[in-house]
Amino acid sequence: MRIGLLTDGGYPYATGESRLWCDRLVRGLPQHEFDLFALSRSAHQEDQGWVRLPHHVSRVRTAPLWTPEDGTLRGSGERGLLARLVTGGGVSFGRRDRRRFAAHLTALATAICATEDAGPDPVTGEGPGAELFTEGLYGLAELARERGGLHLALRSETTVRILEAAARARGTGRTVQSATVVDHLAFAAELERVLRPLSLDWYDQESLGAVDLCHAASGGAAALPGLLAKRFFGVPLLVTEHGVQLRTHYLSAPDAPFGAPVRALLANFHAQLAAEVYRQAAIVTAGNTHVRRWQQRCGADPAEQRTVYPGMAAERFSPIGEDDDAGGPDTLVWVGRIEPAKDLIALLHAFAEVRRAEPDARLRIFGAPAEGDEATTYLAHCRALAAQLFPDEATGAHAEGVSPVTFEEIGGPEVPDLAEAYAAGGVIVLSSVVEGFPISLVESMFCGRATVSTDVGAVVEVIGGTGLVVPPRNPRALADACIALLRDPERRARLGAAARARALELFTVEQNLAAFRGIYLELISHAPVRREADAVDADGEPLLFATPAEARLLGHWTQPQPPATGARAPSWAAGAEPEEGAECAGELEQVAAGQSGCSPQREPAPGTGPVPALSPAPAPEPVAARRSGPVREPACVCGPGDGDA
Q1: Considering the entire predicted model, what is its pTM?
Q2: Most C-beta atoms within 10 A of its C-beta, which of 2, 182, 215, 555?
């Protein structure tokens, strides 16, 4: 079948979210044909190029979700004199289109401003204003499809006036009512950016209308093209989330450069969009139960949910996991990005308690600061605290002191790769206060290491009884668990073996691919037969798939094929019995392939008609020739064996 893979800020770009997971999915399902519809997040991401794509990626369409520094949108521009409402292509709206735009935007703005409650009703599954939201969203989408885009219309004075009127209407929250003109201008700019997929030229029979299934690699903006493909063409939608977009928005809202009214409006919009995505999706897959609960809180139907754990490359850690050496028996190891959410401060205080009980214990911290000044400052603070708690210890008067806590980066001579970092210790520690799916924990399980973790995110679900779990922000409990494992090597070995067995059962690439292979077949088996003009054969009968395998054959596949030039057509090709000495159907193909002889032709079963002589399928066109738009050589080449961290 033909899959339309929808991504936002990731695959096929060399950097971004879910890049590695998407690459493994596409490469692991070569029996399907993939069309990529990718939204980019920045000019820097586009400059990094694409990963090397496999041969069964037939087409790549890209569009930016960012605005250049000069504020102009690519492919858009205002023509004429002070046109208040123009499409993305620069054509002014007529009077009827202006009324349509105002009516649909008013419905959308009313739904967004109606309440500050971000979640849907737990009984009905629909949030306040859900009907108005869908009316406005799909109305704007249809207008954009007819008129070429809404880029400048959503940034117009009319948009600001509609938002201002909706915010001051009765029934809105106090925070929304306090919005100023500056707040409305900022929200209008954000609304245009989030709704930019409505203005793309992807919604025709040659793009999203040609796929059998849309698979959105995340919710939010990535799922918007899938919503429109379902509405315009009836294409079923599958949504996969390893982290809920609405939760991500909530966590990042305090750091956004907006006031409280804009944050409230954006939260309402994303909540309404998430509820609509979950309503329209045929199946919603979650990367873990923690994400699944968030999806249900945002309106997902439990009957349409599946839990599919993200697959990871277990072979990278097999040499460590199968080795009898348990690493440093007195060494604790922490691996990850150094940022405040990882709570290394609590880990350092806990290790101080560990040192009092076990003087020979060591703590090795492998990682680098995350992007941003805050993470860099946090790393400096952790180093200063470690130097204060653990001054260099010297064995003699003239010996150099060595600290029991070290901050190291992976890639040096002692620790060349990620697996060696996990092999350096006997116990792996996770001290986070906020966590989604703990990748470092799964990697340590592949290595057969005992773990001590804080009870956040999906940690308990991942561990499943193969490690020790303590409350977050509790250095004393963290220290007691570490001491218990350091003093009991048999228990460490037992927990490590159980952890590796659990990881190999649940978290491998193979189980992930098997799950989506089954989901694809399940969705396509329940999808109604498409009856558009491009989805029927010559007799008007519907085709089961938008691009069936028979489309690669010459002529009508149910009729006998004409013989090659210069060859005599056998008399039985018209349905008569073959004459003595007649040529076999496969003889010409065998001769062309350098073979000799003729294999006997089986007679057709009664009532089935003659067996057609199929022509060989033409050689597949190179992927670069089938992509729309200019093709660039990728600046960064990555493959399925790239690291997870």
Answers
A1: 0.76
A2: 215
